[in-house]
Design a protein that fits this description.
Length: 492
């Protein structure tokens, strides 16, 4: 302390240096508090890291034991080579094999007008005689095949040639459809689209196409008073042929005779659908029709062994992460005087022991010849308690043979995942072990912050006191120096 004072006095500003030295010496208790606070923050970080690791395992266990999104019921579908359809299967799909033959794909309803001479004036004459025309195009709405919405279209062209007037009709149709979408009358997928097609350089046709495939989304018309649609052949309810307009695909009168619908056989039954993606034929199965077949093809639905194995591997990784975390933090190295943060923390070391025990014991509810130990499905418990998938083929075989048995091994009433979930709940739940420990650390940090703040106030007051004392000393020294000068001048 004397050395510090001596060094301070030797400075350019001895009083300031002396005050600083004294304050630094008296600040030592506060510095100790700051070290304790830093250590508390570090320990809080360790607890947060452990909470994160344990919560990740908890989430995996919840997934494994979830009866709604049961990962052990994952399904996969395989299709015979050469088939013109794809299949996807959800957990709701039943296991087994089915036969499909695609006979026809669903199509949009396309209508074309008569072939007109591009430079002709027949349409100009029609409008000059009859004036503006208003007709309606009926399209399907979501409530069903019989629910139709009529969109009115008004045409009063200014063009001269048939090609120009057909283009104005197409524009009027598209604008009416766009308005219906904008005001909510139709969805964008329900509207029709119009265009002009030039088959040759001197001919033109009006083409009108539905927004979606299938008989439900067919087009129908209410002609104008003077019969504009009939005049151009667009409303002809027969197949177009040669230069005559009409239906490009036979619309028919029902879903069974309309060639707008897809047609396929499933296990010997003939099905018709509006689209080429069919999800209502078999529960949990979606068929995507991509072409037609000359013969039936099989597809099979089986447990998705790859997905299930991935879920189990994820469980192994999260479990090992938690076990390794506790092991690392509970380690004591006497030779190097190193003591882990969890050393002596029975709440955490007991968790590690109990987790290992939970996985070492058999599952009594495992039925019959099904697996009862992790080793029965190719998972080894190492000497340090960590898990390792040492025989993936055994796991795949167990899943393919009886995925339900593997599910019971983990998610049964006394399954491995069920046991661990119950065990860990007390740690990660609200007001659980980790919540309480973190609250204790927060309270400790707050108390240290309060004491550090108190020291800041105390040291500020002490510094002010020292400045006052040294100011008085300087005043006394100044007075003595003045008296000395007076005394010396008396004897001069």
């Amino acid at each position: 302390m004397l050395n510090a004072l001596f060094q301070a006095v030797r400075g350019d500003d001895p009083y300031e240096q002396l005050i600083s030295a004294i304050i630094n010496i008296e600040r030592q208790p506060q510095a100790e508090l700051k070290l304790r606070r830093a250590e508390a923050e570090r320990l809080k970080g360790v607890l947060n890291d452990f909470d994160s690791s344990l919560s990740s395992l908890h989430a995996v266990l919840e997934s494994l034991t979830d009866v709604v999104s049961n990962p052990f019921e994952a399904r996969t579908a395989s299709v015979s080579e050469g088939a013109s359809f794809r299949v996807t299967a959800s957990e709701a799909a039943g296991l087994g094999t089915h036969t499909v033959q695609v006979e026809r794909l669903a199509r949009t309803d396309t209508r074309i007008s008569d072939q007109l001479t591009a430079g002709g004036t027949s349409l100009r004459s029609f409008f000059d005689t009859n004036g503006a025309q208003t007709f309606s195009i009926e399209v399907a709405t979501p409530s069903g095949a019989t629910s139709r919405t009529a969109i009115d279209v008004t045409v009063d062209p200014t063009g001269t040639t048939d090609a120009e007037i057909l283009a104005e009709i197409a524009t009027a149709i598209d604008e009416a459809m766009s308005t219906a979408v904008t005001d909510g009358t139709l969805r964008s997928t329900e509207r029709a689209y119009a265009s002009v097609v030039n088959e040759t350089s001197d001919t033109a046709r009006l083409s009108l196409r539905s927004g979606q495939t299938g008989f439900t989304h067919r087009l129908s018309f209410v002609d104008s008073g003077a019969g504009l649609l009939a005049q151009i052949g667009l409303s002809n309810n027969a197949l177009a042929a040669g230069t005559t307009g009409g239906q490009v695909t036979l619309v028919g009168t029902s879903e069974t005779d309309s060639e707008l619908n897809s047609k396929f056989t499933l296990d010997g039954l003939t099905l018709y659908r509006d689209t080429n993606q069919v999800s209502d034929a078999l529960p949990g199965i979606t068929l995507t029709l991509e072409g037609t077949d000359t013969r039936p093809y099989d597809f099979s639905v089986s447990p998705d062994a790859t997905s299930i194995t991935s879920e189990i591997q994820n469980f192994i990784e999260r479990y090992n992460e938690v076990l390794g975390f506790i092991e690392g933090k509970a380690r004591v190295d006497g030779e190097n005087d190193v003591r882990g943060d969890f050393a002596g923390e029975t709440a955490f070391t007991a968790l590690r022991f109990n987790m290992r025990t939970d996985l070492a014991n058999a599952v009594p509810s495992a039925s019959g010849d099904g697996p009862a130990y992790l080793s029965d499905i190719g998972i080894t418990i190492n000497n340090d308690g960590t898990l390792e998938l040492t025989d993936e083929d055994a796991l795949l075989a167990a899943v393919e043979q009886d995925a339900g048995a593997v599910q019971r091994l983990f998610a049964g009433p006394d399954g491995f995942a069920t046991r661990l979930l119950t065990r860990i709940d007390g740690y990660v739940s609200s007001n659980g072990v980790l919540d309480n420990r973190l609250e204790v650390m927060d309270n400790r940090i707050q108390r240290l912050d309060d004491r550090i703040a108190e020291w800041d106030d105390r040291l500020a007051q002490r510094e002010a006191q020292l400045r006052q004392e040294y100011a008085r000393i300087q005043e006394i020294i100044g007075s003595l120096q003045s008296q000395q000068q007076s005394f010396l001048s008396f004897f001069a």
